[in-house]
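Request: When convenient, would you put together a sequence paired with its structure tokens?
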Amino acid sequence: MGRLAGKVAIITGAGQGIGRGIARRLADEGAAVVLAGRTLEKVSTVAREIEEAGGSALAVECDVNVRAQVDEMVANGVGRFGPPDILVNNAQGGGGGGGCPLDSVTDEQLYTAFQGGPVATLYGMQACLPYMRERGGTMVNMGSSTGVMGDPGFSPYGMAKEAIRGLTKHAAREWGRFGITVNVLCPAAASEGARRFEKEAPRRWEAIIKQIPLGYMGDPDDDIAPAVVALATDLRYLTGATLMLDGGRCLLR
């Protein structure tokens, strides 16, 4: 029996990359997983992978930019598996691209990044709170070393990701009394988005890899997903923290 047997987990942006890796690992550990994504076909494919491996999964089409869809997604998960024990806010609903110097940032770019980042993350947290308030739970939000370090050309995305870290600290302070832990992961992973960036900007990709002491981008399944399992099991006393899962590229101080 897995370490998360009997638990229910919700993962947004679960159709590929880091979200897919986390969903598969949580399912392997026994959790029933709700897989949310804007493209139903993608999350349905991941759900089939999990079910074929003996796990329990529900695919739900959901745009995290829309509060009503997030609320409905959580309600569907509760109806199928029961109240959520784990929430992973992995989806970033916009503003992830580079090539955006700070002096030319537009209102639209900012609003898109913030709506799809901290605002969408808050939607998920608020939708799960009524259930976790009664029984505790684990919330995991996604930050980025881009925000922590300040990568040139990525200011809307980096600002939004830092806002997620601020949101996480406030939630950890306010909701700790309910037995809810809220933490941030800042992953560097070989996701589909990372691979596209590698093809589009090979020199910059090479420069980033050189900044990583361990010398490679992490694997979503093997290097990133285990941290979520740990936060839901052994690291129950950790909250309000930022975990840099980036091979040492960004050393917090």
